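Components:
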Amino acid sequence: MPTFIHGKGTKTYIDEFDLSDYFNAADSTFSVETADITSFGASSRSFLPGLQTATMGLTGLWSADTDGSDEELNALLANATSPLSTVAIQAGTIGNKAILMQSDELTYNISSPVSDVVSVSADFQATTDGTTNLTYSGQSGVQLTTGASLAFGALGNLAGVDNAASSANGGFAILHVPTNSIGGGVTTIKVQHSADDSTYADLITFSTVAASTKTSELKAVSGTVNRYIRATASTAGSSGAITYMLSFARF
Amino acid sequence: MTKYKVTGGDDGQSGIEFSGKRYEAGQTVEMPPKKAEWLIEIGILEVAGKAASESKIETPKAEDA
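Structure:
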């Protein structure tokens, strides 16, 4: 029997915010344009796949909280910097599915019905935006962290995720740091890859995360990504804790 | 066991972790050749002393006509 996953465990991150408490539906669509190459004599149409694209729709609850749904969705509309988002399906387990996207917010809708709660919805269009090595800006990947808070002394290597084989076309990672109280030094977060789940090499090194600073970043790589990937973090800090969600998608 | 130098990879700053120990770019690590194969392939390791020994190879001088 197939294994099905309930949607209640989904988490949604946009830039340096964990907005999971505000949303109750996340819809991601991946599509490819096709050119009609049907010629005379054909009995049915033929198509040639072309450019790929992805969109995302978020639906949830309106809130005027600081860093809440209204403040963030308002700020992202026509933002000069394309926001980074991760939809973590059945979040909390390393290796579970994640949908990573760099996208522009196209619409922001607020619904205020007389007989129901005030709600929000927003649509996003993925864009590569000229980012180096970013072949696709919306892609399915894997979660490399649980999204749980880690004390400064508990950082280190997380479990490797097995892709069963290496891949040759690079990939990209999105990092969200929604809470960070680590004081006294910067935190370094990396994606590493391995051929044997024993010896690991750095694949992506994110910009250092300053003390007590929330942030987000996308980094893309080209070339070989080996069979296993994992997240690792270290800090020069001496107190506090950090929550980071890191996901990686292969091209 | 063979000695390898960590090259730093494409960005020149990438390191590796082997046997629970971290090796940064420029450092030397000893490991079985079999384990090092894929790391050499992705360009993050090279046999230690390789660059030095290559530079010692003299280019044959063109003979005077």
